[in-house]
Specification:
The protein is α/β, with parallel strands linked by helices and about 625 residues long. It folds into 3 domains: about 130 residues, no CATH class; about 120 residues, 3-Layer(aba) Sandwich (Rossmann fold), CATH 3.40.50; about 280 residues, Rossmann fold. A hairpin with a 5-residue loop joins strand 21 and strand 22.
């Protein structure tokens, strides 16, 4: 077999020469209505065959047909064969004009050319069929039962690529039972021999009838809502579902199955892509120095990824955790080697260090994402939440004022609204701080408030995936607990847009869509793994954790929501709180830090309730 491959070009040329000779001979015998050559006819055929063989093989070489890998040839390659043969016919016709009767007539040349085209393409198609193992369909496959039955959703260009790769590389692993497409006119037609069995509504029945184990979602050009609807139907089948993000991924990588990813909860949210006014954002960021605190975190790092695209003169990434900081620095320097990116190890608690950073870089815009965000952990260590969230923010807020920052954006949270935990209460105090500071400073201060982001540090989704991989149980605190969810890129895009709207003193509230039940998310993730909730993987209810509540709210009850130019961004108007009032609250907290420790949780909470009136523990009357 190796020897055949080594000499494949020689073998193909010999076959082509044989086809050319036989085609001319058969054509002459048929048109002359004879079974044998007379001397005159034989001489004419021989004098034609010599230039014909030379011309045809030369043109096939010129058109690089012998450089094709036969098993991967397609329609475009066969068109090249046709073109090479037609050019050869034209050249031989020209030779006929010069050499007259010594070359057979145009009619014989034309018919012979048609025979050559049909024969050359036919034997190559047969070779491709054999090399790709198509003949095995007609043999008894001993491993037929070992192959996984696969249903492919989609009947477009991406699916053609997928089918080709499955047949060549994975034919002993996967058996494609058919395709699904919502275009009713395609149903019962076939792509590469694979029939389109029905539309999305037929998926459960088709999977049941064909014992489908794996569904490959191979539609790259589809709305998020349609993707969500189809994936929800797939969940009913109990099959493992994998999704192809885009056709271009098939081009980048050779390994087909590496291009498919597991379906994520994001796919089931059905959100359409965010439309931004990039012009407004670019005007603020382009050629400016931008500082991101907490730049190594999930939100902070995504802020850096999106900010760098708007061409700041310098991006300063500040974080106390060096590993995350190093990761985002290396990622951005690799993707944007020409950009000025500065990674600074520093704590927002250290005012002196912050002074050095602000004095050295003189940022024009500041995004303050540094904070302790884990609710249960902050319930255990409330003083750490106060030190980092409250006084860390206080330090950055004052630096922004002292060093003439144009605009300061605080990354806040829905847990600041009617908070039942220390973390949320500290973030609400930070909101008060920036609103008060805005009244006395030339810097424009604003906050952006949003809910949970999928995939962030501490998100339930990575935890659920890990628990499923370990065989369960998946732990949910309460069957009725709900949360607002948004993807990290989506949330950060809206933060940047809100930043461009800020005039100072606003709390921007992001439209998080409908709240999602955490229990439902757990069930969906289990089903998308091809397992049955509470059968293959148990879901265990553990009870609400300290500081946790069933429902989060995005707005204070007394706030009146105002629309902005963007349909997903709203504004809570500036509050009446003053800098003096905020300083008074902070003085109380300084006394707490001086005289308390983390074991005195009740005393700390009592002071926080005085400072943040909307902070009530769970079960406490409002």
């Amino acid at each position: 077999m190796r020897e055949l491959r080594k000499h494949r070009n020689v073998i193909l040329r010999i076959i082509d020469i044989f086809i050319i000779i036989v085609s001319y001979c058969i054509t002459v015998l048929i048109l002359e209505n004879t079974l044998a050559f007379n001397p005159k006819l034989a001489k004419q055929v021989i004098t034609t065959l010599i230039p014909a063989v030379i011309v045809y093989t030369t043109m096939l070489t010129v058109f690089k047909t012998y450089k094709n890998i036969t098993r991967y040839e397609n329609g475009n390659d066969y068109l090249v064969y046709i073109l090479a043969c037609l050019v050869s016919y034209i050249i031989i016709s020209i030779l006929k004009i010069f050499f007259g009767n010594s070359i057979v007539n145009h009619r014989i040349n034309a018919i012979a050319t048609l025979l050559i085209i049909v024969s050359i393409i036919s034997y190559r198609v047969i070779l491709r069929f054999i090399l790709n193992g198509g003949y095995k369909k007609y043999k008894v496959n001993e491993n037929e039962n070992a192959r996984k039955n696969v249903l492919i959703i989609g009947a477009g260009e991406a699916t053609k690529i997928v089918l080709g790769t499955l047949k060549t590389t994975f034919r002993d692993i996967y058996n494609v039972v058919g395709l699904i497409d919502d275009n009713i006119n395609k149903v019962n037609y076939a792509i590469s021999g694979n029939r389109i069995l029905g539309t999305r509504k037929d998926i459960p029945e088709i999977c049941k009838e064909n014992n489908v184990e794996l569904i490959l979602f191979s539609i790259s050009n589809i709305s998020n809502q349609d993707r969500k609807d189809i994936l929800q139907i797939c969940q009913q089948t109990g099959c493992k579902v994998r999704i192809l993000p885009g056709t271009q991924d098939l081009i980048r990588n050779k390994a087909l199955m590496d291009n498919f990813r597991d379906v994520e909860i994001e796919d089931l949210l059905g959100r359409e892509s965010i439309k931004l006014n990039n012009k407004d954002i670019k005007e603020l960021i382009k050629e400016k120095v931008v500082l991101v605190t907490g730049g190594g975190g999930s939100i902070g790092s995504e802020l850096c990824r999106q900010i760098i695209k708007f061409n700041p003169s310098k991006l300063v990434i500040l974080d106390i955790y060096e590993n995350n900081l190093y990761d985002i620095e290396q990622e951005l320097k690799y993707n944007y080697p020409e950009k000025d990116i500065q990674a600074i190890v520093a704590s927002v608690r250290d005012k002196k260090r912050l002074d050095e950073v602000f004095a050295g870089f003189k940022p024009y815009l500041v995004f303050h994402a540094a904070a302790h965000k884990h609710v249960p952990l902050m319930e255990t260590s409330p003083l750490e939440a106060i030190k980092n969230n409250v006084f860390g923010t206080y330090n950055v807020v004052n630096c922004a004022d002292e060093f003439n920052v144009k605009r300061f954006i605080l990354i806040s949270t829905d847990k600041a609204v009617n908070s039942t935990n220390i973390m949320g209460a500290t973030k609400r105090l930070c909101e008060m701080m920036v609103q008060a500071k805005n009244k006395t400073s030339q810097t424009e201060y604003a906050a952006v408030r949003f809910g949970n982001v999928l995939g962030s540090n501490g998100s339930v989704i990575p935890l659920f995936k890990k628990q499923i991989a370990q065989g369960g149980p998946v732990t949910v605190t309460d069957k009725e607990i709900t949360r607002f969810f948004m993807t990290i890129p989506e949330a950060v895009s809206l933060v940047l847009q809100a930043m461009s709207y800020a005039k100072g003193g606003e709390i921007f509230v992001l439209d998080m869509g409908e709240p999602v039940k955490i229990y439902d998310m757990a069930e969906n993730l289990i089903r998308l793994s091809g397992l049955e909730p509470n059968v293959d993987i148990q879901i265990k209810i553990t009870g609400l954790r300290p500081g946790e509540k069933l429902y989060e709210e995005l707005l204070m009850a007394e706030e009146n929501l105002e629309e902005t130019k963007h349909e997903k961004i709203y504004i809570a108007p500036p509050s009446e709180i003053t800098v003096e009032e905020v300083e008074s609250k902070l003085e109380k907290l300084r006394e707490v830090l001086k005289n308390s420790n983390n074991e005195q949780k009740e005393e700390i909470k009592k002071v926080m309730k005085e400072i943040v009136p909307t902070y009530k523990e769970r079960g406490e009357s409002k």
